[in-house]
Amino acid sequence: MSFKIRTKLAIAFMSMLFFFLVFTGIIAYYNQQAIYNINKRVEAISDEKEIVDNLRLAMDRILMPGNDYIITGDRGYFDEFKKNSADLEDYLKNMEAALKRLEADGHAASKVKEKREILEYVKTALQNIREISLKIFAIADPVADKNAARLMEEMDYKWSYPAVDRIGKWRKIDSKEQREAIEAAQATWVRSWMIIIAGSIILSAIGLSFAFFYARIFTRPITDIHNGVDKMAAGDLKIRLDIKTGDELQQLSNAMNEMAAQLDGLYSNMQAMVEEKTRGLKESEERYRRLFEGINDAVFVLPLTSDGIPGNFIEVNGVACNRLGYTREELLNMSLQDINAPEMAGNIEAAIKELFVNKQVMIERIHIAKNGRRIPVEINAHLFELKGRQVVLSLARDITERKRREEKIQEQMDYLERFQKASINREFRIKELKDRIKEIEEELKRAKGA
Fold it and tell me: Are 393 and 381 in contact (CB under 8 A)?
């Protein structure tokens, strides 16, 4: 028994499979490398921002012992000064190591140079702050001492504030670099999708070419077989197919000649084929369902009218149900207005307008669970057409922990700002007390003279 058709089809299939594997391999390698590099860059910038924040806090803390010593005269603050100084030195070493890593990773030379200049200035400021602080602690009785106050003022305004300002500039540079890295990641995904779409079109064109080529080879004998089958089905069981292709088509025609009297078996085979197709469709649907339910974020699918009015959800995944505390049936009878916080109602229209323009939008919202719990989420929504109507696919990521970290950082920054204001107010108060003491001394002198 020959297998010429199978060989031909196998060659065609393997050719298509080869192109597909090559294409898939290139995309996988490209994405793996690009995403790895971007993630590495974002991680390095995040670590650097953390070091910068710690450096700023340490710069503020190193001033406290000297200032408190001037106010109280307590020598115990000298030990606190030494500890804060050592901590600041460690942060500077960590920052030096971070800059070396950036240089090794091929970071932009101009940005590294700017950061290194800031680092050198902070080192210089630290050295001068240490020297001035030692002079302050060398004063036996610093309370109401003019020289101690002058040294403290010099340490604040000449070295500390400019250093903190430069550290803030460094953090702005890191924030800008982080935004650029995130934008680069998004651009990488866009390029990947463009390559995938282009590759799919090319592969489809190749597939159509192969189909057209083999159709021309097989069309004529298949047409003869088709006509013969029609006649057999009409009851002309004496018909005989005369196919001389030397391959499986000829074998098929011979077999059909032999099976003319066995139409019942043919119908049974056709029924088996139908069942196989049905089973394949069910398996395909099950694979889609597992993929849909396997996403870690909450997924909502909802239709939009031509006026941009969102309707009830038409599909949700298990994460959405578990997070909000509703059953799937309950959510399918709800819409965005039912799960969004009331204060977010005015922002829906603007987001939908942007969605119609860009086909994609990323926004932050607050969802309200069934038990009333408020859940901050980051939503990545995509607009597409399904069965002739506009449909939105939204992926909602829970950002509760991220918001908590941001609030904690903001609380620390507010605390530092209040401390800085308090320090300045104490200095002005000390100056007023000194002026008052001087006035009293002059009044005593005048009283003695009288």
Answer: yes
